[in-house]
Design goal:
Blueprint lengths: L28 H36 L3 H5 L8 H19 L17 E2 L5 E2 L2
């Protein structure tokens, strides 16, 4: 004895072990009926109420027109590619001059700048 009382009736059906359910398993008619009933109930008692509630909430918010970020956010000025490029170029050049002070650089780096070709955006290249 394991210390537990066994309350099964003597003529009660012993539950059979669950068979291996794989791709080749064919459900019985009763199991098919239960599956169909579960699908039907889950549709009507879960999916439909959730969808209807979501639809009503969305419709109410749309009709109310809530956009809290619209009032709080400042309007930004549109900026062109050229303005953004020039701004970034200026900040890059400033960071370069801050990193290397000309008086600290060695003599071989103080070579006068050569004349180089410049495209319409101000980029330089050597040939």
């Amino acid at each position: 004895m394991n210390g537990r009382a066994d309350f099964r009736e003597p003529n009660a059906e012993v539950p059979r072990p669950i068979p291996h359910i794989g791709p080749d398993y064919i459900p019985t008619e009763e199991e098919r009926r239960v599956f169909a009933e579960c699908n039907d109930e889950s549709f009507w008692f879960r999916s439909v109420p959730l969808a209807a509630t979501s639809m009503l909430i969305t419709q109410g918010l749309i009709s109310k027109g809530p956009d809290p970020n619209l009032e709080e956010s400042p309007k930004r000025k549109n900026i062109t590619y050229e303005e953004l490029r020039n701004k970034n170029r200026e900040s890059y050049e400033v960071s370069l001059t801050q990193k290397t002070d000309p008086s600290v650089r060695p003599m071989h780096e103080r070579v006068p700048k050569k004349e180089v070709k410049v495209n319409k955006y101000g980029d330089t290249w050597d040939e």
